[in-house]
Specification:
By secondary structure, the protein is of the alpha/beta class. Helices cover 25% and strands 25% of the residues. The chain is built from 11 helices and 23 strands. The strands form 6 sheets. Strands 8-7-9-10-6-11-12-13-14 form a 9-stranded mixed β-sheet. Strands 15-16-18-17 form a 4-stranded mixed β-sheet. Strand 15 and strand 16 form a beta hairpin. The protein binds adenosine-5'-triphosphate (ATP) and magnesium ion. The site of adenosine-5'-triphosphate (ATP) has 13 residues, from helix 3. The site of magnesium ion (MG) has 4 residues, from helix 3.
Length: 457
């Protein structure tokens, strides 16, 4: 019989290597390779020939009748909006987020709402004792919701319990990193344990039609801890974001096999739990009095809803020859580098001896490419110490050539900005013709915008 080959799995990224190495070749993490004993080769697999000896599967036509998946409303409109209209029966959802951001709170609230409608809901906590969860439920005013609660970490125990009665409509597993499958060796939280536990729980969802929600820890870079494969295994991946020092939280789908990923759910964290914020457009705007240099408002679009955020830039000239820092909060650092490069190469502005800091106010994270123009305007304003008038918004995409490109839903962004009292907008030239309540200034290139902000024209 062929001898089972050893394989080593990186605990950070899940890549497999035939040899142990000090550093993972995929993700460059140190000391992250651990021998994986779970995948011994069977003599069958070793033969590599899968062309015969199997059972023929039935092939069916694509146009056969199908029912739309049953969706279970959580009773929390913002939650339903983010997942595409409600949790789908028989689906697996993974929700990730920083420690203490409110994952358990959100899921307990959703579980209680669903249970209160007469559906059976099981909440399995691997991190907290049942009493702790009960205390939280009481604080949230949900102490009498008929949620079935258990503190357990063995997947075998959990599935045995769930198999006893009728399958529940919803199972919450808080968190997948604490779960343990006795089918394979290894401590909870290791890649192979997380993968094996998730596999069993997802199979339970598919077989029984229960919606399974797994809570996942995130690493310090914000990725869901454990193997990337976990994200491939589930149907929906949600991320719960926000700054702990701020009140607002955003639920965003990063993958959804049953719906779109463009809508967000917005919540405010309070003593009595997470409150829904139905109209978030003005939420992240700080009190805006006098104009200050380096600050401009950007009307971001999240799905169908505009959210206005303030973009703040600070440019500090360095006297010494030290390497200047670039720090970004709430935006993509690579994109900032690109905007700085375009400003330097196409507009003749030099940031090479200056430190650059960029911040999206209110703990909001912008992923909308239309922020380019607003970021550029904030940087130019910060560099020149010339404030942009406070009643101004800006949006548009910047190409490497320095040209400004129009973006989607310009009219909607302008309408919401006007509603919140903004009067002027800096936009790509192709948009400037749009009739609307605002005074628009259009630019064809980033150079034109720079000239305008520096008062050169
Ligand atoms: N007694 C309290 N009063 C008000 N707010 C509280 C109270 N206890 C907790 N919170 C809030 O709830 C948050 C913790 O929420 P929760 O436990 O749901 O987070 P989590 O994402 O599940 O965290 P973890 O990753 O540790 O499981 C705290 O950061 C705090 O803002
Ligand atoms: Mg928790």
């Amino acid at each position: 019989m062929a001898k089972a080959k050893k394989r080593y799995v990186c605990q950070a990224c899940g890549s497999v290597s035939p040899r142990w190495q000090g550093q993972c070749a995929e993700c460059s993490e140190w000391n992250s390779l651990v021998e994986d004993v779970s995948q011994a080769l069977t003599p069958f697999a070793a033969r590599h020939n899968l062309r015969s000896g199997g059972r023929a599967v039935e092939l069916v036509a694509l146009d056969a009748e199908v029912r739309l998946p049953d969706r279970m409303s959580s009773g929390i409109a913002e939650f339903d909006r983010a997942v595409g209209g409600g949790l789908v029966a028989g689906s697996a959802t993974l929700i990730g987020g920083d420690p203490g951001i409110g994952k358990s709170t959100l899921l307990l609230q959703a579980a209680a709402h669903i249970a209160a409608r007469g559906l059976s809901v099981a909440y399995i906590s691997g991190e907290e004792a049942a009493d702790q969860v009960r205390l939280r439920a009481r604080r949230l005013g949900l102490g009498d919701a008929p949620v079935q609660l258990a503190a357990a970490t063995s997947v075998r125990d959990i599935l045995t319990t769930l198999d006893e009665g009728a399958p529940p409509a919803l199972v919450v597993i808080d968190s997948i990193q604490t779960m343990h499958s006795d089918l394979i060796e290894g401590a909870p939280g290791t890649v192979s344990q997380v993968r094996a536990s998730a596999q069993e729980l997802i199979r339970f969802a598919k077989e029984t039609g229960a919606a399974v929600v797994l809570v996942g820890h995130v690493t310090k870079d914000g990725a869901i801890a454990g193997p990337r494969v976990l994200e491939h295994m589930v149907d929906t991946v949600l991320s719960f974001e926000g700054e702990r020092s701020h009140q607002y939280r955003i639920l965003r789908a990063t993958k959804n096999r049953f719906g779109g990923t463009d809508e967000i759910g917005v919540f405010a964290m309070a003593e009595e739990g997470l409150a829904e914020v139905a109209n978030p457009s003005a939420l992240f705007l700080t009190d805006r009095g006098e104009s200050v240099s380096g600050a401009i408002v950007f009307p971001a679009l999240e799905g169908t809803r505009p959210v206005l955020v303030e973009i703040q830039a600070l440019v500090v000239r360095l006297a010494s020859g030290a390497t200047p820092r670039r720090a970004v909060v709430g935006w993509d650092a690579g994109r900032l580098a690109m905007i700085l490069a375009v400003l330097e190469a196409r507009c003749g502005l030099s940031f090479s001896t200056a430190e650059v800091y960029l911040n999206i106010a209110g703990g909001y994270r912008v992923s909308d490419p239309a922020a380019d123009l607003a970021v550029a305007a904030a940087l130019v304003s910060a560099l020149s110490e010339r404030p942009v008038p406070a009643e101004t918004v800006a949006f548009g995409e910047v190409a490497l050539s320095g040209e400004l490109r129009p973006v989607s839903h310009g009219a909607l962004r302008l309408k919401e900005s006007a509603k919140l009292g903004f009067e002027r907008a800096l936009v790509p030239a192709s948009l400037a013709g749009d009739k609307g309540p605002m005074r628009l200034t259009g630019f064809r290139t980033l150079g034109e915008l720079v000239d305008h902000l520096l008062g050169r024209q």
